[in-house]
Amino acid sequence: MTDSGLEGALARLHTRALRILITNDDGIHAPGFAALEKIAAALSSDVWAVAPESEQSGASHSLTLHMPLRLRRISPRKYAVLGTPTDCVMMAAKHIIPKYGAEEGDARPPDLVLSGVNRGSNVADDVTYSGTIAGAMEGVTLGLPSIALSQAYGFKREDVRWAACEHHAPPLIARLIEASWPAGVLLNVNFPDAAPEEIGEVEVTIQGRRDSHAAMILAREDGRRQPYYWIGFERKRSNPPKGTDLRAVYDGRISVTPLHLNLTHTDAMPDLAAAVAGFPARGAREG
To answer: How many domains does one find in the chain?
Structure first.
């Protein structure tokens, strides 16, 4: 976020005129999206909601290119897209807000993209699969400050304590906007499985890594005795080091992890450059 952009966002935040775009990967009717609507409403009166028509968990940063996108208007400033979280943010920024915002007399782009609130944490290896992260990632790609929000839970999906994120997210987001962060960076925020009053201090963390890959292939047979398969994940705790997103959430703290889109591992470059130096030799022939 540029200094001038930050100043503008701060001014609009303080007057509740901050334009916020919200999306998710669990679908337009997910309980976490209802929680995000409350969070956004606490920050601004100018909120646009554009989310997938159905669940898109694990979609990562995928685009729908092999079929047309379908758009359904649910209510003023709330739309469902038959597509991925990436499709939703792109549609919102490039079509929905410019067109329907202009009809209201204000087609300016969002000041902030909020993606979530995901049912379950998005930490460690999860971030490469996550459609929640991808929604924020697409916002960053479009030059918009973006935050992904996720709420951890125990062993039952129906026992998510949404009050944790609903209570703490609005003031935390306001603080993050005031602090600012670099362009090309999204913030990955994870709330622990705890009541609001039980949550410890916020910790700025690095992306962790699980001790082992938890993916499982579940084999089944249909009514014609033909095999089919589900990809599942075994829920088990690892022993992550301090300073990681995993450890913070395990210890009951809110994790804020800055992630960027540049995946280059610069430390590996010198050795690789030395290994391929002079290859292929000019004029060399294969024997």
So the answer is: 1
